[in-house]
Write a structure and sequence with these properties.
The protein is mostly helical. The protein has 6 helices and no strands.
């Protein structure tokens, strides 16, 4: 989460940088923040999903990232001409902050879930953070799937 917050702060600095050397420094620091965030986000998603649904969650995460990489340049192009060359960068930095907040919430829910005894944990930690699976909310895949039977009593 700190990686995404620092990347956002550096993007704001990049948008306001009056000198080329400061812009280069801010861009470099932003890339380092992204490099710290991406593996952490993948780990949070992987650990929050039930073992048999990790593919769904990681696939949804990859699809969301791909969607953002398609839509962001369009939004940036729309902002560039009427507002200014700094606007797409500031817009991107602004939208990183809610993502950092959601990442922090997900990590906290995961920590709380893993601190409980196994018998009192929810089916998967994401149930605490996000009651309905984002995959099930947007994709009909897997809705009719049979649930696994509970293990036999000892």
């Amino acid at each position: 989460v700190l990686g995404l917050v620092s990347a956002s702060a550096c993007m704001f600095l990049l948008a306001a940088a009056p000198w080329g050397w400061l812009a280069a420094l801010a861009l470099t620091a932003s890339v380092i923040g992204h490099a710290l965030w991406q593996p952490a986000a993948t780990t949070i998603i992987s650990r929050a999903a039930a073992p048999d649904r990790q593919g769904e969650f990681l696939g949804a995460s990859g699809a969301a990232g791909s969607f953002a990489r398609v839509v962001a340049p369009v939004i940036g192009g729309v902002l560039f001409t009427p507002v200014g060359p700094w606007a797409p960068i500031a817009f991107a930095a602004l939208f990183m902050l809610p993502a950092a907040w959601l990442g922090w919430r997900a990590a906290e829910a995961l920590r709380r879930s893993e601190a409980r005894p196994p018998s009192s944990r929810p089916t998967h930690p994401a149930a605490e953070f996000w009651p309905a699976s984002p995959v099930r909310a947007f994709c009909p895949v897997g809705r009719g799937r049979r649930q696994r039977a509970p293990p036999p009593a000892p």
